[in-house]
Amino acid sequence: MESKPKILIVEDEKVVQDILKRLMRPRGYQLTFVDRGDEGIQRIKNDREFHLVITDLMLPGASGLELLAVAREQDPDLPVILITAYATVDSAVDAMKGGAFDYLTKPFNNEEVMLVIEKALEKRRLVNENRSLKRELNRKYGFENIIGRSQVMMDVFDLISQAAPSNATILIRGESGTGKELIARAIHHNSPRKEHPFVTLNAGAIPSELLESQLFGHVKGSFTGATSDKKGLCEVADTGSLFLDEIGNISLELQAKLLRVIQEKEIMPVGSTTVTKIDVRLICATNADLERMVSDGQFREDLYYRLNVIEIALPALRERMEDLPLLIDHFIGKYSKENLKTIQQVDSEFLEALESYHWPGNVRELENLIERAVVLSRDGAIRRELLPPQFLKRLQDGMGFMPTVDFSQPLHLQLQTFERALIVKALNVCDGVQKSAAQLLGVKTTTLNEMLKRHKLR
Question: Which residues lie across from 171 on neighbouring strands?
Fold first, then answer.
């Protein structure tokens, strides 16, 4: 439950104190009264929890303007209302220049005073709410929320920290489920544009005939159903960042218009003949082989080079299995909190199953699986039987380990993945007996042992 606002009242007239007390106490405000300016200054310095300060202008010890200056220095967002019986134009100007929220004269109208107080408290509430939201955004989209200590992830963090402060266009590459949007948000929220919009658009989820209108907007009557003018997402993201996922899905015609956005910093809404200047940073993502698409004439070469100023390649989960324990711990903590669960134990067989899996769905697949296990746990323990039946069947059949062909990955990585799958399949067939598995694979037991270490298999 939200606590009642704390209000400091610095007033040396007992009559005024009593009036303010009678007006404000019924609303439940927490009131602190002092009758000297220097004491009010000390209270402000010692207590950073005040939501509002109401002060007389003429006070013993220190004036209301001196108190206002200290309040602004301690907390620029703390609203201060000045009240005086000696109102002059100069004193009012000085008060407002000093940053006072408002300036009232005695004798004051009770309703007017309460209206000003409520407006000041509402402003303070919005400021606090905004701060809280910013803290949450920084926590959620800061680097610390991107889990990983493997060398490949350390390289990604290093590249993000260098790229984020710039205005360079960024291309994020990686398989589905590797966290491309999370990286894009981290880039935005660690850039000079973080106070401005971050807008996302999945180009693979929108029909090509509607995508242009989504990106650039349209004017009334430009097509059937265009009953009014509409801003496109490029304009909505002005001064901020636009994240375009699945960039390989846009048509060649639209690619030419996107190139204009990058080169000329301008757009033309559908049906319009007027260009609109914009300032937007493009962050794009894809799991497609754009180089091959360029060779096949499916993607413009000039756009490819404009997008690929800085490339961030996200590894698949199977390529950073040393991060698996960290990710498991992170998701257990996250979903335990969300579902008011206390997980005290994770069964070793559960962990071994996850460590042996190929993870075609990457971190997203792992997150969904952990969420399910946390929700279904009844005794604070996560056991192998909480894994989905289809997951357990793939493990039993060895199907979970068989890689799919992925031409966006280099040959040596696909060979490593296939080698790992063969080893796991052989171990399953031989009930985990390494000597038998080695014979099945046609290698020495010592060689198989080295391969198990290299692929981080138990």
Answer: 284, 311
Q: How far apart are CA 266 and CA 263, in angstroms?
A: 8
Tens of pLDDT, residues 274-288 = 899 999 999 999 998
Q: What pLDDT score does 137 carry?
A: 52
Residue ranges in 225-269 assigned as alpha helix (H): 233-236, 252-264
418/427 Cα distance (integer angstroms):
14
340: left (phi over 0), alpha (psi -120 to 50) or beta: left
Measured CA distances, 230 to 92, 200, 214, 270, 278 (Å): 45, 17, 9, 10, 15
Biggest CA pair distance of the chain: 100
Q: Which of 379, 319, 373 is nearest to 350 (CA)?
A: 373
Q: 271 by DSSP, 3-state: which? A: coil
Distance linking the first and last C-alpha atoms of the chain: 50
Matching residue, tokens 């981290």: 186
Q: What is the token pair recorded at 403?
A: 């890689």
Stretch 268-273: mean pLDDT: 88
**Per-position b or e across 25-49, b if 16+ CB within 10 A of its CB:** eeeebebebbbebbbbbebbeeeee
The whole-number pLDDT of residue 1 equals: 42
Q: What is the mean pLDDT of the chain?
A: 87
C-alpha of 431 from chain center: 44
For residue 305 the two structure tokens come to: 């080079």
Q: Which residues contact 103 (CB under 8 A, 6 or more apart)?
A: 81, 82, 84, 87, 91, 92, 95, 96
Q: Packing angle between helix 180-189 and helix 151-163, nearest 10 degrees?
A: 40
Phi/psi of residue 184, each to 5°?
A: -60, -45
The b-or-e profile of 359-392 (16+ CB within 10 A means b, else e) is bbbbbebbbebbbebbeebeeeebbbebbeeebe
Q: Average of pLDDT values for 314-334? A: 91
What is the percentage of the chain residues whose pLDDT exceeds 70? 91
